[in-house]
Amino acid sequence: MPDHANSAAVPPTIAAALERADASWRPHLIAGLDAMMRATPAYLPDLANDHYLPTAGRLFAAFALPLPAVRYVLVGEGPYPREESATGVCFMDGAVGPLWSDTGLSKPVNRATSLRNFMKMLLVADGQLSPDDTGGAALAPVAKAAEANGAIRTLAELQDNLLGHGFLLLNAALVFRKHVPPVQEARAWVPFQRAVFAALAARADKPTLVLWGKIAEQLNKVPETAGLPQIHAEHPYNLSFIRHAGMQQLFGPMHLLRRS
């Protein structure tokens, strides 16, 4: 595989963002970027001259988790459409700090619909909420008991727990731009994602692919994912996600809302 120095065709600002990725990933990510340049030569140069999220060189932040540590690949649609929220890590809203308030979930969590539903699903899986009653009144006593029950307090702790269980938190489209439809953006990143999944599929211990939503599910059509165990669900911005039995079975035993 080519190394960083030989990726001259990739725009320098895009290539520089690879510094956020663990060294174990970089040859594979460079191969993916080179594949993008061959498939759509204008895409990355145009992107480099455009405004996109995430900012601050966080394009490949998800790959800070070393390749050998990956046990699951959680794939969402794309970055949050707000600069303070888009971190380069799937589903982790940078605008959210505390998870709880005196009356239930914190206001930032409640505004982040997908995160709110994910937390409710975790609480249902943990037996702390009834799937028939996940509203504010039911959440208030859960929030009050959180500290005594050893619950995590911040989104950063939730991210740490996910990483500790080996989750690569990946988006189908690594960027968000207001003027580009997410489906179109994700399509351009397919050659890159194929290189990512080729690296994962080459391992003897195959990671499980967790696909959320229709855009992410398109990745089950690429050859490199064919040999990976897969679990599909609707995107967490749907209320039905809270009741998804497969998600409860997967995440429940991990107790992600408890301090590790």
What does this structure look like?
This protein has a domain at about 5-85 and about 160-235: 3-Layer(aba) Sandwich (Uracil-DNA Glycosylase, subunit E), CATH 3.40.470.10. The chain contains eleven helices and six strands. It has helices at about 10-15, 25-40, 45-50, 105-110, 115-125, 135-145, 155-165, 180-190, 190-200, 215, 245-250, and strands at about 70-75, 100, 105, 165-170, 210, 230-235. It has a four-stranded parallel sheet with strand order 4-1-5-6. Strand 2 (about 100) and strand 3 (about 105) form a beta hairpin.
Layout of SSEs?
Blueprint: H1 12-16, H2 26-39, H3 43-48, E1 72-76, E2 100-101, E3 104-105, H4 107-111, H5 113-125, H6 136-144, H7 155-164, E4 167-171, H8 182-188, H9 190-201, E5 208-212, H10 214-217, E6 230-233, H11 245-251
Parallel strand pairs: 1-4, 1-5, 5-6
Antiparallel strand pairs: 2-3
Essential attributes:
single chain, 260 residues, alpha/beta, Uracil-DNA Glycosylase, subunit E, four-stranded parallel beta sheet, 11 helices, 6 strands, 9% strand, disordered N terminus
How much strand content do the residues show? Answer: 5-15%
Question: Which of globular, elongated, flat, extended, rod-shaped describes the shape?
Answer: globular
Low-confidence stretches: 1-8
DSSP summary: helix tally: 11
Average per-residue pLDDT, rounded, comes to: 94
Q: Helical amount among residues, as a percent range?
A: 25-40%
CATH topology of the domain at 4-84 and 161-236: Uracil-DNA Glycosylase, subunit E
CATH top level assignment of the domain at 4-84 and 161-236: Alpha Beta
Helix/sheet category = alpha/beta
Query: At the fourth CATH level, what is the homologous superfamily of the domain at 4-84 and 161-236?
Result: Uracil-DNA glycosylase-like domain
Q: Using only CA atoms, what is the Rg?
A: 19 Å
Q: What is the count of β-strands? A: 6
How far apart, in Å, are the first and last alpha carbons?
Answer: 38 Å
